[in-house]
Amino acid sequence: xxxxxxxxxxxxxxxxxxxxxxxxxxxxxxxxxxxxxxxxxxxxxxxxxxxxxxxxxxxxxxxxxxxxxxxxxxxxxxxxxxxxxxxxxxxxxxxxxxxxxxxxxxxxxxxxxxxxxxxxxxxxxxxxxxxxxxxxxxxxxxxxxxxxxxxxxxxxxxxxxxxxxxxxxxxxxxxxxxxxxxxxxxxxxxxxxxxxxxxxxxxxxxxxxxxxxxxxxxxxxxxxxxxxxxxxxxxxxxxxxxxxxxxxxxx
Length: 251
Hints:
Elements (H helix, E strand, L loop, with lengths): L2 H19 L5 H8 L3 H8 L7 H10 L4 H11 L5 H18 L2 H8 L9 H8 L3 H13 L3 E4 L2 E4 L13 H20 L19 H20 L7 E4 L1 E4 L7
């Protein structure tokens, strides 16, 4: 891993983040925000050329990068090397995105579907994400040793992933916020026989809260085990609400 690849990843992710919030957001709008030419940015994102020192410094400034990341942009602009910092940052970044971006787990679950394909375009169509998002996520999962490509398909290298409960981490918060947004889309998009949303309002006894949490987790695991039996065909999310995971941006 070198500075150029790391800086490219930072810029790609920033563009995808903006586009996920506004599907109409264009590469031209992004280039205008960064203050660099659309042709230069497009060629850089496609891996066809590098950016000038002036443009690299513009981007670092516009994105308000943390000090260490900004130093990597400075190093790249000055053609200096600091591979140790890059590797450490990349590992942290990969771990963050694995948890925070919902489609990483969804891609791992797609392996259970017999008709799945080792193809970013197929994954993108199945989950309603962009092909670039699918490509970056697949590459990240392969690099982390969680996914392996095998001919026209891929397979998961680990058991289903879980995270520790009650972690005060922005990656966890980001993931839950994304899932809530997808739940809103499902309410508008999916027919009632394909989704289930359940809610009740009641007066709570605070001393029973922890016991209730454990019951919810135990019951959820039983429900997931039941739904995973048989032949899987779709990837769903269960958070008391049960709905198909697909970010349909046409809604």
